[in-house]
Amino acid sequence: MKIFVRVTAGARKEKIEKAEDGKYAIWVKEKPKENEANFAVLRALAGHLRVPQSRIRLMQGRTSREKVFEISD
């Protein structure tokens, strides 16, 4: 399953919202340096979906605000 995410790094508080089109908007406190924001998004997504982090993989958008994650079975 693929998850499409728009990330806002450096936010004051962390939150996740799901839009009507199925995409997620995720705000994380970490800054986008040294992959810190990507790891924070991964943790937030795993907690929200209640799956282990090891089942989630970043497919596209390592340096972009628009990311695609894959959830494996």
TrEMBL record:
Q: What is this protein called?
A: Uncharacterized protein
NCBIfam families the record matches = DUF167 family protein
Lineage: superkingdom:
Bacteria
- Which family does this protein fall into? Belongs to the UPF0235 family.
Pfam families, alphabetically?
A: DUF167
Q: Which SUPFAM superfamilies match?
A: YggU-like (SSF69786)
